[in-house]
Amino acid sequence: MPDARGWIAIGLLALTLYIFTLLAINPALANIQLFGVLATAVISGGLGAMIGFYYGSAKSGDTKDATIAKALDKDTP
Hints:
The longest helix is centred in the middle third of the chain and has 24 residues, at 33-56. The chain has one domain (4-75). The model has no long low-confidence stretch (mean pLDDT 80). The chain is mostly helical. It has helices spanning 4-25, 33-56, 61-75. Helix 1 packs antiparallel against helix 2.
């Protein structure tokens, strides 16, 4: 099962797919300014933030601390 970041990514991708499906079913939605603003916010802002966080975040603080401690132990004589 995915963790919290995985569920957020799945939700944002599903929401993006839903927006594109709505536009395919009803092209008149493209002329509504509010729909355009919300769709742009979800697609560019939401997906961009999701990709940046999901792929740019570290595994956990404990894993980082262990890696740093191991590197420091090698440097000490």
